[in-house]
Amino acid sequence: ERHLLGLKQLEREEIASILDRAAYWESQTSKVTPRLEGKFVANMFFENSTRTRFSFEVAEKRLGAQVLNFSAAASSVEKGESIYDTVRTLESMGIDAGVIRMKPIGLLAELAEKIKVPLINAGDGNNEHPTQALLDLYTMKKTFGEIKGLTVSIIGDILHSRVARSNLWGLQKLGANVQFCAPDNMQAPELAEHAPYVSVEEALQADVVMMLRVQLERHDKGFIRSAEEYREHYGLTVERAARMKPHAVIMHPAPVNRGVEIDDELVEHEKSKIFAQMGNGVPIRMAVIERALS
Ligand code: CP
Questions:
Q1: Same-domain status, 204 and 217
Q2: Quick one: 61 and 197 in the same domain?
């Protein structure tokens, strides 16, 4: 089984081995290693993406694979073709692995039973985004040396966040303490038994303050009263960031709503790991693609 559906099902040792292999790939000086020469990988994005799609493409090209990019908007999905039929179509053409992002929850597990080539989850609804959490874990490991014992606050739209869920499962397996902070209407009730909800002031005292994007596209109208009000109560403002611990870091999966969940000046602040996270996405995805095809 070389699928990567989520971190909830992944063993601690498997996570550690992906992080180690990413460090190996990061240390390589040559840009392209023909490790996956002759392999075809399809990136199938049924939802938009910049970071995940391009860092998978860079990772695949750095490993010497042939890359096929599929985007739903320019495909027969527009004529009503299903996700299953689309993936089966690409499989029938001989792809060796597929990276997939889509809205429905639960469909990926069904696909993984029917599709023979390995599938890698690039984000499914609000369920999981395992490679994002892996690159977040990798960033924390590089910053602090070890993840065990770290306190990580995840602040914002937990309800709609696949990033929060994958980070929760991954961080807990590696021995970190996870706490959430969110307004009542952005809390995920089913996660309350796994991690406590704390106040903003308490959340600021963590080693890692991970801000989440307010997912305007997943909210019904009226769910968020105003960006200003959100910033005032839950945003990482310059004033709040000044109350963080001296060694603590700011993370965010991006894209960022500057001036809503995080102040503009903090995005490239010395405490911020936001662009480092994006860079770390490449070696992590190299390790994940290699694992799928080995
Ligand atoms: N962090 C992340 O998944 O970004 P994209 O939606 O641009 O891929």
A1: yes
A2: no
Tell me how many domains the chain contains.
Answer: 2
21 annotated binding-site participant: no
* Gap between the Cα atoms of 186 and 101, Å rounded: 23
Residue 45 is assigned to a structural domain of this protein:
yes
| Predicted-complex ipTM score | 0.98
Six token digits for residue 292: 């799928």
100: containing domain: 12-128+278-293
Provide residues with CB under 6 Å of ligand 1: 49-52, 123, 132, 253-255
| Residue 179's CATH number | 3.40.50.1370
List, in sequence order, every beta strand (DSSP E) within the chain: 40-45, 66-71, 97-102, 119-124, 151-155, 177-181, 208-211, 249-251
Asked if residue 162 belongs to a known ligand binding site, the reply is yes
**pLDDT (tens digit per residue) in 152-196:** 999 999 999 999 999 999 999 999 999 999 999 999 999 999 999
